[in-house]
Amino acid sequence: MAKNKLSFEEALTGLEKSAKDLVRHDATLEEAIRNFETGMDYYNKCNEILEDAKQKIVYIQNEGAQ
C-alpha cells in the first residue's frame, strides 16, 4: 500500500478500519499490535494532509492581506 499517495478520505477510512479491528475481542496480541501500528500510520498520514492544508490556508490568507 502506497500511503504517500492516499487521499485524506482514504487514510481516514483506513484509520477507522484499524480502530474497529483493534477493539475486536477475538484478535490476538500480534493482530492488535499490527492494527495499532497500521492505525498510527493512517493517523500520521491524516495529520500530514491536514497540516499541509492548514499551511496552504495560512499562505492564502496572508497573500490576501497584502
How would you describe this protein?
The protein is mainly alpha-helical and 66 residues long. Helices cover 79% and strands 0% of the residues. It has one domain. The termini are far apart. It is rod-shaped.
Q: Mean pLDDT, rounded to whole units?
A: 92
- The poorly predicted ranges are none
What's the total number of strands?
0
Q: Number of helical segments?
A: 2
Strand content: under 5%
- Structural class per helix/strand content? mainly alpha
Number of domains: 1
**Alpha-carbon distance between the two ends:** 42 Å
> What quaternary form is this?
single chain
List the secondary-structure elements in sequence, H or E.
HH
Shape label = rod-shaped
Helix content: over 70%
Q: Over the alpha carbons, how many angstroms does the gyration radius reach?
A: 16 Å
Largest sheet: none
Topology diagram in text:
Blueprint: H1 8-22, H2 29-65
Notable traits:
66 residues; mainly alpha; 2 helices; single chain; rod-shaped
Question: In summary, what is this structure?
Answer:
With 66 residues, the chain is an all-alpha fold. It has one domain (7-65). It has helices at 8-22, 29-65.
